[in-house]
Design a protein that fits this description.
The complex is a heterodimer of chains A (85) and B (230).
Chain A: E1 2-12, H1 19-27, E2 42-51, H2 54-69, E3 75-83
Antiparallel strand pairs in A: 1-2, 1-3
Chain B: E1 4-9, H1 16-25, E2 29-34, E3 45-48, H2 68-78, E4 83-86, H3 88-95, E5 102-104, E6 112-120, E7 136-143, E8 147-149, H4 152-160, E9 164-168, E10 179-183, E11 189-192, H5 208-217
Parallel strand pairs in B: 1-2, 1-3, 3-4, 4-11
Antiparallel strand pairs in B: 5-8, 6-7, 6-9, 9-10, 10-11
Classes of the chains: A alpha+beta (85), B alpha/beta (230).
């Protein structure tokens, strides 16, 4: 078994209203970041998983991301996996 | 016969005693049921009360659905037993798959604590079956994540099957189609953001919540044949 480090990003799906992102974006010009737009707020998770192969690690992480870490009604998740050095 | 309501207590629930008080005052019996138990005892109906179950960590209701009692609540609902989720309880029912959709952060990003007007949109549920559609009720809301959202197919289904039971007359939180409460296909599982238990007597400013709770207190089991989609 190999230890893999997993990074999961959970984001609101395109088209779903993001009042937090909109509020942050409205505050940016006062700091001089008037050129920034399209702010979206999400969540990120890091964890480690023991698995036999890359594919196994990825499929465990993907299942966890879609069944618990995100709610598919409003969120998408993306998973990246790498071997712990 | 007096109907007995089991009120589930999760770590972080904070409206369970209000529900017990309201149910008792309206002539029912109520008992608290710990979320770690697997039995609903002799309950004829179940209420998931408001609060912040499991701290609302990750997402509202996301962790509560793993509480041992929820498996039993799911079977009870499948068998046609009346289940009502109020506020955080509604959020738990959506995460548990007993009701469709999700409750998102309020559109204005404000925690809302006020009395609002609701219109009864359907009498086809255990919480509204004695109420005339169109009747207006004044009941408090108290939430940050109460903006109902679902995909357009689900919304069409909810509308066509008269499963939107309560609508806001003046939408306070950006909820899709002014939805304040919905039910499952069989009408025995209801989720709503407003708190009927905080409006069971005029001493509290309104007794309109009693009209909803009285429906629950005379509810029968719905035949299990048309159990809800999970």
């Amino acid at each position: 078994m190999t230890c893999y480090s997993v990074f999961v990003e959970v984001a609101l799906r395109p088209g779903i209203a993001d009042p937090q992102g909109a509020t942050i974006e409205r505050a940016l010009p006062t700091l001089g970041f008037g050129a920034v737009h399209g702010v979206r707020v999400g969540k990120a998770f890091r964890f480690e998983v023991e698995a036999a192969t890359d594919d196994d690690a990825r499929s465990q992480a993907t299942a966890l991301a879609s069944r618990l870490l995100s709610n598919p009604v409003m969120e998408d998740s993306s998973v990246s996996v790498e071997v712990v050095a | 016969m007096t109907l007995r309501v089991g009120v589930v207590v999760f770590p972080g629930s904070n409206c369970e005693h209000d529900v017990v008080e309201a149910v008792t005052a309206l002539g029912g019996e109520a008992e608290l049921i710990w979320h770690g138990d697997r039995s609903l005892g002799r309950s004829d109906a179940v209420v998931l009360p408001g609060g912040f179950a499991h701290g609302d960590y990750l997402r509202t209701g996301a962790l509560a659905r793993f509480s041992p009692i929820m498996e039993t609540v799911g079977r009870f609902a499948d068998d046609g037993g009346p289940v009502v989720g109020i506020c955080n309880g509604f959020q738990i029912l959506t995460e548990a798959g007993l009701l469709p959709g999700v409750l998102q952060k309020n559109y204005g990003l404000k925690f809302l604590c006020e009395t609002v007007e609701l219109r009864v949109s359907s009498a086809a549920s255990v919480l509204t079956n004695q109420l005339e559609p169109g009747r207006v009720l004044r009941i408090p809301i108290n939430h940050f994540e109460g903006s109902y959202l679902c995909d357009s197919r689900t919304l069409t289904e909810l509308r066509n099957e008269s499963r939107i039971v309560l609508r806001y007359t003046d939408n306070p939180n950006g909820s899709l189609d002014d939805i304040a409460g919905i039910t499952n296909k069989a009408g025995n599982v209801v989720g709503l953001m407003p708190h009927p238990e905080r409006a069971y007597t005029t001493l509290l400013g309104s007794d309109d919540g009693a009209a909803l709770l009285r429906c629950l207190l005379t509810a029968d089991r719905v035949p299990a044949a048309s159990s809800s989609p999970r």
